[in-house]
Amino acid sequence: MNDAPTSQPANPPADPAGGPAHGPDGGPTGAATRRGPLREGERVQLTDPRGRLHTITLTAGKEFHTHRGRFRHDELIGRPDGTTITNSAGVEYLVLRPLLADFVLSMPRGAAVVYPKDAGQVVQMADVFPGATVIEAGVGSGALTMSLLRAVGDAGRVHSFERRADFADIARGNVETFFGGSHPAWRLTVGDLVESLPASGLDSAAGTGADRAVLDMLAPWECLDAVADAMAPGGVLICYVATATQLSRVAEAARASGRWTEPEAWESMVRGWHLEGLAVRPQHRMVGHTGFLITTRRLADGVTPPLRKRRPAPGAYSEDTGADTGAGPDALSDGEGYGERPVSDRKARKAAREAAAGATASHEATHGATPADVSTTGEDPADVGTAGAPDEG
Ligand SMILES: C[S@@+](CC[C@H](N)C(=O)[O-])C[C@H]1O[C@@H](n2cnc3c(N)ncnc32)[C@H](O)[C@@H]1O
Fold first, then answer.
1. 39-96 adopts what CATH topology?
2. What percent of the chain has pLDDT over 70?
């Protein structure tokens, strides 16, 4: 493990007094690469007439070619963003600088990236502000890192921890490609978060705690104590997890530690819309699941979390839930473990009678006859329907 910063900032470190910090051109880091004419070395996105995307890095002397013609990169260098180019076969491409959301979906990746819709939620719901000090682990491919760096700005600090050196290299390359060089707010440590965090200088007890923490990893519950030690009171922790069992474990671990406020969890779904003339409707395809987000805030030391007003659902903490013990998914096999209200036999019988009555009424309305045993025999509904239907012809 190497817990010394492995990504040294190229630009002067952020002014501890809170004064303005600037990129090499005097503006905020990365801003210059987002505007102006297209430059050599920049990535640009080409959209062909069928809407297919190609991402290229503009290189003097190089050609972009497909089986349907070619053009020289030099024809684009110096042209404005948002231009078009026609290749040797007459195919026209729209040329645009990728947005951050485009960039993260087309950049090289090792681990899965946080999707732009979730990165937006992280920045907003964890209240990542300009100048904030943020802990991030793991870094993976660096997608979320870029959103965090943008949100904290040059005067902030993102302390990122990644235990896989190969992934850290991918992330470093992506971040530097996107910002056009290293970012002054970024400290990248190769190492396990729990082992490396104490050496970071972020220390709640010493008054140098971080403002925010973002965990995107398999087992965030293992890091809660280390993060609490490194976080200022009132600081926001947000975890991004892929499964409901992870969500449960992190929530129960936060509650059990007594150092965090009552956690809140949610997911977001984004559905694109097809826009064409009067055919304006949701798109048929969407990304159905990415992950869940859960937030909680660091309590001041010595403060006992206030008692919850709501009582937990009966059975939510039955012995076999394993929710607060870290037991695996098998322990969550009954509905009560998931907080479902238990259904009494009486209530179930009543519901069954109502359902049967509804089926009878529906059948009479449709077929004009009552199936004698629709609710009592347990026959295949298809057979019941046939028996009660008027004879054909
Ligand atoms: C899903 S990836 C993170 C993706 C990243 N947020 C992005 O948007 O590109 C999870 C990463 O966490 C790292 N990881 C898991 N546990 C860790 C720990 N305790 N300390 C540091 N890194 C860890 C893994 O090596 C992996 O690269």
1. Vcp-like ATPase; Chain A, domain 2 (3.10.330)
2. 75
